[in-house]
């Protein structure tokens, strides 16, 4: 939810409190402040990792000199699914738009809305909410192995000779580390910090030279999102598709295997009767009481995500009666994602 919020400070007043008129919003009729209640949209986020392998210059000698027998001489790029998560996001519900007709002596001196027009607070300010962001893996910078090559390696007349000399240098680095760690080196570091610095430098040299044989692998995460409209009893709905070679694809792209989403209400859906309609007269601020639904996501027959999430379409609406605002300064904070009440304070 975007947190670009504006407060209706022009509506503030210090006069005695009067009743508040709230009615369904009809374009072109009456003046006042229009707010929406949210409806739930399921946000399916797939974090996929693009893996890129570049073979090393001396990859054909990896088994001969370093006993590495699984080193591929061919470059490769492929995708992996790292994580799948579903979030319950709130979007304005056009069927739940209400008009607050503010009078001269208003009991709601300040109405705060989100940028999308969802109600956030009455007579106070909603706390700043930090956006939920994923920690994504990014490609790391690789050391240039030529920085650590000796003169003999650089002047080698063939790749076979270069591989032989490079392997010997790697073994020399390993031996130097072992001697230092055992305290047997001719020139030992003076303190722990110096020791760690030397070991780190030797590790960097060894890794850079070893990559001439093993190659480098870069991993980069990307987030792919699909929005699903909740429906009770939703079964095997294709949210997205996944291909090892192409990555995450739209639901209609048959080049990938389907990622299925299922949803089932975990509480009885409210029954609207004529008596309920009569009771819910618009005599105060309208808010949501969301229901709940169990969401599962599967791929290749395995469950990748399972949780119970708030679903406003599975709930009902109620009225925060005007009497609550009379004679006292009542402050209300709403959850803009569900339209439910988070907190009520009074003076």
TrEMBL record:
<keyword id="KW-0732">Signal</keyword>
<dbReference type="InterPro" id="IPR032265">
    <property type="entry name" value="DUF4831"/>
</dbReference>
<feature type="signal peptide">
    <location>
        <begin position="1"/>
        <end position="19"/>
    </location>
</feature>
<protein>
    <recommendedName>
        <fullName>DUF4831 domain-containing protein</fullName>
    </recommendedName>
</protein>
<dbReference type="Pfam" id="PF16115">
    <property type="entry name" value="DUF4831"/>
</dbReference>
């Amino acid at each position: 939810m975007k947190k670009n919020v504006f407060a209706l400070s022009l509506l503030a007043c210090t006069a005695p409190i009067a009743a508040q008129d709230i009615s369904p919003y009809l374009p072109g009729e009456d003046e006042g402040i229009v707010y929406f209640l949210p409806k739930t949209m399921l946000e399916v986020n797939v974090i996929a990792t693009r893996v890129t392998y570049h073979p090393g210059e001396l990859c054909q000698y990896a088994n001969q000199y370093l006993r590495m027998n699984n080193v591929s001489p061919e470059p490769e790029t492929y995708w992996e699914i790292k994580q799948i998560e579903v979030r319950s996001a709130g979007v304005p519900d056009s069927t739940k738009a209400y008009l607050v007709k503010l009078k001269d002596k208003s009991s709601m001196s300040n109405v705060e809305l989100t940028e999308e027009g969802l109600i956030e607070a009455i007579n106070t300010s909603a706390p700043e909410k930090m956006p939920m962001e994923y920690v994504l893996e990014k490609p790391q910078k690789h050391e240039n192995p030529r920085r650590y090559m000796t003169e003999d390696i650089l002047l080698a007349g063939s790749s076979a000779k270069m591989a032989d000399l490079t392997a010997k240098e790697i073994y020399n680095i390993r031996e130097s580390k072992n001697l230092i760690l055992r305290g047997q080196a001719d020139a030992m570091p003076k303190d722990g910090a110096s020791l760690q610095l030397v070991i780190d430098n030797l590790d960097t040299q060894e890794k850079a030279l070893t990559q001439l044989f093993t190659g480098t692998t870069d991993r980069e995460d990307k987030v792919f999102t699909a929005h699903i409209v909740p429906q009770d009893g939703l079964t095997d709905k294709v949210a997205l598709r996944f291909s090892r070679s192409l990555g995450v694809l739209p639901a209609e792209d048959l080049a990938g295997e389907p990622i299925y989403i299922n949803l089932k209400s975990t509480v009885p859906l409210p029954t609207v009767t004529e008596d309920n309609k009569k009771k819910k007269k618009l005599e105060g601020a309208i808010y949501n009481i969301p229901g709940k639904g169990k969401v599962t996501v599967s791929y290749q027959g395995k469950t990748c995500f399972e949780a119970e999430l708030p679903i406003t379409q599975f709930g009902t609406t109620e009225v925060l009666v005007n009497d609550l605002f009379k004679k006292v300064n009542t402050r209300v904070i709403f959850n803009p994602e569900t339209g439910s009440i988070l907190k009520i304070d009074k003076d």
